[in-house]
Inverse folding.
């Protein structure tokens, strides 16, 4: 039985959608059985806060990003702040871009895994960045257009 002593790694290469210039790479590391750390850099954003979510479908093919589906919520529930009692597992809050449009991301996501299977696995799902700040209102936070999308793909070589 593999206890995954070294942890699992995954990557999401963000591509611009909805006519934006947003791009970046996010690295995901499983650092215990139920927490994943997302780190990386995103460029081409407008300065300020941007909604940041895991979406249910690992598909970024549509020009507006709608192919990524809704927020990842295997247990249902309502949209909210990640620190709040009620929220989807895919509700990651906001990232903040500096005056140059760059956001350095470091977000710890409890309750998810990088396993290839399992109810709370986020492998082959999408990370989406929105044009506006997530105000944590239900159903989706009023974050505006989807401006970047990247499919979470497990790293085969385990190098970062």
């Amino acid at each position: 039985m593999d206890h995954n002593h070294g942890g699992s790694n995954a990557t999401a290469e963000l591509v611009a959608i909805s006519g934006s210039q947003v791009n970046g790479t996010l690295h995901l590391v499983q650092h215990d059985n139920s927490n994943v750390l997302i780190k990386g850099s995103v460029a081409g954003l407008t300065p300020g806060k941007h909604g940041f979510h895991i979406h249910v479908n690992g598909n970024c093919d549509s020009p507006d990003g709608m192919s990524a589906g809704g927020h990842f919520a295997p247990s249902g529930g309502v949209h909210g702040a990640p620190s709040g009692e009620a929220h989807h597992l895919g509700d990651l809050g906001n990232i903040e871009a500096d005056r140059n449009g760059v956001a350095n991301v470091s977000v710890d996501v409890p309750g998810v895994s990088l396993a290839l299977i399992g109810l709370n696995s986020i492998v082959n799902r999408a990370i989406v960045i929105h044009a506006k700040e997530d105000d944590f209102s239900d159903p989706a936070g009023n974050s505006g257009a989807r401006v970047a999308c990247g499919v979470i793909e497990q790293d085969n070589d385990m190098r970062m």
Remarks:
- DSSP finds no helices and eight strands in the chain.
- The CA atoms of residues 29 and 125 lie 15 Å apart.
